[in-house]
Amino acid sequence: MGILIAAVALFVGYGTAWLASGEVRYLSRAGAEQAQILAASRPLEEILADPATDEATRGLVSLVREVRAWADTLGFDAGETYTSYTDVGRDTLLLVVSASPPDCLCPHTWKYPIVGRVPYKGFFDPAMARREEERLAAKGYDTWLRPAGAYSTLGWFNDPLLSTAMSRDSMELAATVFHEMAHNTLYVKSATPFNESFALYAGYRAAEAFFQARGDTVAARRAAERWADEQLLGAFYTELVARLEAFYATRPAPAVLDSGRVALGSWSRQWLVDSVGPRLRGYRVGALPDRPVNNARLIAARLYRTHLDWFETWHQRHEGDLRKAVAALAELLGGGEGEEAFRRLEAALAEAPATR
Question: Of all helices (H) and strands (E), which one includes residue 4?
């Protein structure tokens, strides 16, 4: 979730350049898909009034309407996001490619207007996604191809609720909606790890407050547990990254690099199963394959789990009031870009809390 494709706004008017540039073909396909999604959208009220709508879908659409209303009370910029619904007609919305050199946790990035540099690229065309992954793998990169069921255009379009995001788990659906609206509310250019980690925090904390207000203590507790789990996983990835960076800094020869990645992969697997897994409250760690480290997979996982403890500390600094915390964070980050986002947050947290 949270895949940002604001560049689709540029697809109109490329004309004959289609044949000359793969990037133009990519943008044109993305723009055409976005146009089809918008054209096929139906207002939520129409979905609810349609007697052909099944009861499960009706319940989830009703939930999304309630979540939108609650997002306004939190100061989230809901705009016209999720006021309509589109059945995309397939179970996978798009495929996302990530890549990194095998000897460095250095994400390959793609640059787009508005959003800046992003360490992944989403494709509506599966064949195009696989060709991009193969191209990068042929250059020696670690690669990862994964599905995504939702994305945000940061308010450039009135994003409809997509059938691929319609989780039958009401808590996760609510968290997804809050997550995407958080992107509309606060977005820092060229700062994907910050943006996604912030939206993860905002999504689960908002879901917890929403269900608590409805008197659904079970769903509220599950949202709180999921947020706690994500923080534990964030700490796990932070430790793994530290060990990998120390190893890569030795500039190992190819054979040593391969064996070291295998060893660190086995260590991290064992640590996750034996130490982290038993402390997770919502997630369950089952049998895991014993495989070498894949930098692209690791970077993609950390996009959503970078300094999550900082966001929780910020939340507590603002009395556990999400509205206050988000508003203060938006003020703190005004005009910032890239790595400046985390630097400003770190500096703010280093200051002594204001006394009351």
Answer: strand 3-4
- Antiparallel, parallel or unpaired: β 110-112 and 116-118: antiparallel
Sequence spans of domains, the chain: 3-170
- Cβ atoms 37, 88 nearer than 8 A: yes
How do strand 161-162 and strand 84-86 relate by DSSP bridges? parallel
- Give how far Cα 44 sits from Cα of 30, 80, 162, Å: 24, 11, 11
Task: Give the torsion through C-alpha atoms of 350, 351, 352, 353, to 10 deg.
Answer: -100
Closest CA to 312 of 228, 240, 242: 228
* φ and ψ at residue 222, rounded to 5 degrees: -65, -40
Terminal-to-terminal C-alpha distance of the chain: 39
Provide long-range contacts, Cβ within 8 A and 24+ apart, for 321-325: 322/74, 322/202, 322/205, 322/206, 322/209, 323/73, 323/74, 323/75
Does the predicted model carry a pTM greater than 0.90?
Answer: no
| Helix (H) or strand (E) run with residue 59 in it | helix 55-73
272-294 tens-digit pLDDT: 999 999 999 988 887 778 889 99
CB 336 within 8 A of CB 298: no
Of 195, 217, 172, the C-alpha closest to 306 is 195
Q: Where are the beta strands (DSSP E) in 84-201?
A: 84-86, 94-100, 110-112, 116-118, 121-123, 142-148, 151-152, 161-162
